[in-house]
Amino acid sequence: MSLNICRLTFRYNSILTSRSKVPFQACLIYRQKHSIVQQKTQNVSTISVPISINTQNEKVQEIKNCSNELDSSFENTKEAFKSKTNFELIRGLLVFHLCSIDFLVRNNQRILQFMRKFLGAALFKRILKLSFYGHFVAGENTKELLPIVRKMRKFGVQSIMDYSVESDSLQNIEEKAASEIVCEKKILKITEKEFDKILKIFTKCIDTVANATKREGFAAIKLTALGRPHLFTKYSEMIVQIQTFFKAVTGSTDDDIFLNKISKEEFLKRLEEFQIKIDNQVFEDWFKMLDSDDDGFIDYYDWEALVNEKKELIQMFTSFNVKTGRIEPLIQQFTDIEEKEFANMKNRLIYLADYAKEKGVGIMVDAEQTYYQPAISQITIDLMKKYNQDSCQIMNTYQAYLKTTLSNIEIDLRLSQRENFYFGCKLVRGAYMEEESKRAMDRGYENPINPSYEATNEMYDKCLNRIIKEHHNEKNKNKISVMVASHNEESIRNAIQILKDEIIAPSDNVIYFAQLYGMCDQISFSLGQAGYSAFKYVPYGPVEEVLPYLSRRALENGSMLQNLEKERKLLWKELKRRILSGHLIYKVPSE
Ligand SMILES: Cc1cc2nc3c(=O)[nH]c(=O)nc-3n(C[C@H](O)[C@H](O)[C@H](O)COP(=O)(O)OP(=O)(O)OC[C@H]3O[C@@H](n4cnc5c(N)ncnc54)[C@H](O)[C@@H]3O)c2cc1C
């Protein structure tokens, strides 16, 4: 079955190959039916729903207790740094001081390379472990991790293990393969072996979480660690092309794409407008196959099946390539080898998800760059559909610095309602801002990042409010969890206020808090000891392989000078307090 729609192709080719990445996911066209009562609070527009008196009293009491325990200025250093030795405080001060020196931050990679060469691998490793690595990374293997995880747990902070090998290092796997051989099949053999090794590491990570957290922790994973990054780029492009095609046919924008649908007649009219000739019977069959609920319309959710289950249906759309002189598929496809690699990557993921489920461990999928993200998000949502039937075992990550994040959350929330799965979300601001902006400028596409920090903050609040609103939606009630993953004190205070206003107890597991290991302990430990669900993202991995992560930490800390200043002040305050109170040797309390 082949349909030539050259006109459409030429008109939209530029859009289809554009890099304005918008994650494409399935969606709902149905509006929420039940009524809700809106009320305004100080910062946010919130929703209140009646809950039973008993439960409400208990919840109110729990919220009150936590709130009374918490110093929300996060300046009670005695409590916040209770779990830290004096050495750790001094190391923190030194590391943050180095992060404030612009020259060191800008040249950190070159300096690290030089140090490695000059000092030799063994000494370099030792020095890093005593300084930067020791501060930001919990260890090389599960044996080194366990004591740290247990210690944090004693002080009310749970762990999310994060094997912090970044795609920069993973790119080396591809390079290694490519430098040794030329044959694609051999590349496949080499890379697949490497990814299988990483799978084993992730499996051990799940074991560690299960051992250390008594079946209530999370393991974080970067999907690009399980397959060649190239696959994610290509799959993302396919997703964006398919999405752009739907927008073109229905005249949708990012903001209303989840509301639009198109009938057979309208679709045909559109094709005519594009002067595309088509055999009526072929089109009729095609439409019928795509219209999953047989309601005579194709909505975004039906259309999304072209990405996965019904991907052969997209092959009907072909175009004439003037360069090659051949008729080619309108939406690019994987080669046979890539198809195999992709299937292997998915199998690894399914193996991990099954394994984690068996061990009672949740999986938190990290968000990455926009050229990987549509693929990552799509794959994660597919996992949620399968594994989040009874609980929030899989959590996706949303980056508020992207212009399209609120609409992506809307799409996914509606999908979770339609397909009846638990929606789990880690909400971050986003870590790749400079890289994204530079890439957009170099390649001449619209910058996907919000125009200002204030716009990102506004997006963060809007996303959080939208998710919490869904918690009160009858259809999704008690099936929503969101992790406020941020070092921004305003965002944390805002979330605490939402818990109060909405009468959501910390033990309801609707809002969690998380900060990175080595950063903002004053927030995590204050929250944890006050009774909130506090987590630390705990990176681990071999020294050489986490260097890109450390480099990112230096850069990020360098650009957050205000935060850094406060943290340094607090560390110094606590050190002085201990010295003045005669605790030259400080012993971490056992409980
Ligand atoms: C537990 C945890 C998990 C994380 N997981 C991920 C992940 O999976 N993927 C990921 O990408 N990041 C992740 N991050 C990092 C996160 O995205 C942020 O980079 C980091 O936390 C800083 O943001 P903030 O909210 O903590 O602090 P803030 O200092 O309030 O915010 C800084 C952030 O604001 C945004 N910003 C700053 N200036 C501008 C500007 N001019 N225009 C637009 N936006 C601007 C940027 O995102 C910047 O990182 C994670 C962070 C935490 C704490």
Automatic annotation (TrEMBL):
User: What's the family?
Assistant: Belongs to the proline oxidase family.
SUPFAM superfamilies in the record: EF-hand, FAD-linked oxidoreductase
Q: Which organism is it from?
A: Panagrolaimus superbus
Which Gene Ontology molecular function entries are recorded, alphabetically? Answer: calcium ion binding; FAD binding; proline dehydrogenase activity
Give the EC number: 1.5.5.2
Q: In which pathway does it act?
A: Amino-acid degradation; L-proline degradation into L-glutamate; L-glutamate from L-proline: step 1/2
Give the protein's cofactors: FAD
**UniProt keyword annotations, A-Z:** Calcium, FAD, Flavoprotein, Oxidoreductase, Proline metabolism
Q: Which residues cross the membrane?
A: none
**InterPro entries xrefs:** EF-hand-dom_pair, EF_Hand_1_Ca_BS, EF_hand_dom, FAD-linked_oxidoreductase-like, Proline_DH_dom, Proline_oxidase
Briefly state the protein's biological role: Converts proline to delta-1-pyrroline-5-carboxylate.
Provide the reaction this enzyme catalyses: L-proline + a quinone = (S)-1-pyrroline-5-carboxylate + a quinol + H(+)
Name the Pfam families on file: Pro_dh (PF01619)
A single Gene Ontology CC term: mitochondrion
Superkingdom to which the source organism belongs: Eukaryota
Presence of the UniProt keyword Nucleotide-binding in the record: no
List each copy of the EF-hand domain by range: 278-313
Taxonomy of origin reads: Eukaryota, Metazoa, Ecdysozoa, Nematoda, Chromadorea
A Gene Ontology biological process in which this protein takes part is: L-proline catabolic process to L-glutamate
Q: What is this protein called?
A: Proline dehydrogenase
Q: EC top class, in one word? A: oxidoreductase
